[in-house]
Amino acid sequence: MRINNILVVTIFLILALLTGASGGMKEAVSAGVSTVPDAKTGSVAQQDLKRNDEKWRADKSVTWPTKYQIITETYITYNDTMDIAIRYPQIVNLGDEERQIRINDLIRSEAVPGQFHDYTDNRLFTLPIDFKITWQSDNLLSIQYSGMGYVKGTPHPNHFFYTTNIDIAQVKKVILKDIVRIDEDFVEKFRHENIKTVSPHPGALSGKKILIDSTPFNKVDDTIRHFYEADEVDQKGRLPSNYCYFTPDSLGISVYAPHFMGGHAEFEIKYEDIAENIKAENAVWRDFFPRTGK
Q1: Which of 174, 163, 164, 169 is nearest to 67 (CA)?
Q2: Are both 158 and 182 inside the same structural domain?
Q3: Domain span at residue 258?
Q4: Is 75 left (phi over 0), alpha (psi -120 to 50) or beta?
């Protein structure tokens, strides 16, 4: 009887291990060390992320002076039509467990948008996404996500870039129209030919070239409309085309660009250069203009 019990337990453990290797598994990572095995050794998305580690090492070694710390988790889906691996940050040691859970849930939902779940093509969709933090304080967290997704048999990959900015105190997503007054003056600053272009893609041209000569930004009114819609994921979880993010000295805006220009392009402008357009009542500005904010 004792031998039969041991056999049953052994079979149960084997089935549990096999189940854990299926799609949708999460890989918790702290300090770059995986705490569980990969879902599948054949996952190209996970292999791409590992090859990307050296490139991003300097960004992820930055220490921010905050009360809380950042660890990394990985969302993984691996099956016949999807090979997705998305790394995203989670905060620990905030000192307020209920608020920490809400913040981490918000980060996770933003990191893995609904449109990635809705892929229905029978061809394999491979998508590795990594993140880096461009600003971290006890007041505000700004996260960039980027990666290159490709469908088997299609002529070229698609560049993905999106961001999430979180008001730590309010547990609220921060979007562009909530922090700046988007008007012709603001848009013209980004359309200037000397605006700093930080896109990693060699096809991305100057701000003037993209925001004046290329659609959908060839008119000021159109650019105002696109900036006003920045950062807002629709009800179906589809990503918008434009985003904002924070750095120590500049506000960044990422815009859609034609594929030959890289698919997206990022521009950064000094905070002092847009001081007249900031909505000073928003508390996130206290990090950059200490006398502003509620």
Answers
A1: 169
A2: no
A3: 176-294
A4: beta
